[in-house]
Amino acid sequence: MKSLFKIAALVIGLFFMLLNQSFSADGSGGKAGAFLRMPFGARPAGLGDAFVSIADDANGLFYNPGGIYQIKGTTFLGAFTPMSLDLKHYQAGFIRSYGSMGAFGVMFLGYSVGKIDGRDANGSPTGKFGDNEMAISLTYGNSLFDVFGIGGSIKYLGHFLKDNRATAIGYDVGAHLRIEREYAAIHLIRFGVSASNLGTSLKWNTESGLEETVPLLLRAGGSLNYKLGIFDMLFVGEISSIKGGNMVYHTGIEIWLSNILA
C-alpha cells in the first residue's frame, strides 16, 4: 500500500508541475478546438466542470480516461443542446467493462452552426453554408492494485467549413486514485489528474496548409463522499489550465437523498 501511495503522489506531483509550467499567458480565447473545452454532460456541468477526480460514469471519457476502471457493466449517455444563433452541441459516450481486462469506451462530440450567409469579395451573396466540428475517441482504462487506475484515449478531430476541412489525431491520458475508508462520516476519497489534446494539430486542406494547434488541457483535483443520515454528499475541487492560458478553479457539491433524488 505504501508503494501505491508513492506512485500516486509522484503522478499527481508531476501533473501539478505541468500545470505550473502552463500558467503563463492571459486568457484562452481564440484557440483551436474550443468546443473541446465546453462542459461534457449534465452532471459535470452541475459540479462546476470539476470531474477529473470522480470519473465514475460515461462522462469520465471526456474528463479522465484513467477513472473509467470504476465502471461495472455497461453505461452510456447522450445529450443534445440547441443554442442561440443556430448553434448545436452534441454529446454521446459509451463504456463497457470486462472485469480484469479493463474498460473500453467510445465518445462522440459535435458542434455546429448552419445557415451562415456567404459573401464574395464584392460583398454579394453566395448562398448559405455551415461550420461543423466533431471529435470521435476510443478509450481504454484499467486498474492497478484495485484502487489506482490509468487510461488513455486516441481521438480523431475534424473541422468542416464550407468547402474546406481540417483534421487531426490527438491523445488523452489520465490517472485516478480511489481510497475507500470509513473515517467519521467520510467513506470515499478520490484524486485524479489528466492531460487532454496531447500532440493535436488541425491541418487544413487549403493552399496555405495552415496548422492550428489545439492547446494542451491539464486537470488535477480531489473529491470526498460524506454520509450524513439519509444524505450522501459529494464535495469536489479541481484546478485546470490550457497551455498558454490562465489557471481556473472549479468547485461543486452533489447531494443525494436516499439514492432517489440528486
Report the mean per-residue pLDDT as an integer: 85
What is the rounded Rg?
Answer: 20 Å
Q: How many beta-strand elements? A: 12
Structural class from helices and strands? mainly beta
Spell the H/E element sequence: HHHEEEEEEEEEEEE
Shape: elongated
Strand coverage percent? over 45%
Largest sheet: 12 strands, antiparallel
Spatial gap, N to C terminus: 34 Å
Tally of alpha and pi helices? 3
Unreliable spans are 19-28
The level of helicity is 10-25%
Structure description:
- With 262 residues, the protein is mainly beta.
- 11% of the residues lie in helices and 54% in strands.
- It has three helices and twelve strands; from the N terminus they run αααββββββββββββ.
- The longest helix is centred in the N-terminal third of the chain and has 21 residues, at 2-22.
Secondary structure blueprint with pairings:
Blueprint: H1 2-22, H2 42-46, H3 60-63, E1 74-82, E2 87-97, E3 103-119, E4 125-144, E5 148-161, E6 164-179, E7 186-198, E8 201-204, E9 211-213, E10 217-228, E11 231-242, E12 248-257
Antiparallel strand pairs: 1-2, 2-3, 3-4, 4-5, 5-6, 6-7, 6-8, 7-10, 8-9, 10-11, 11-12
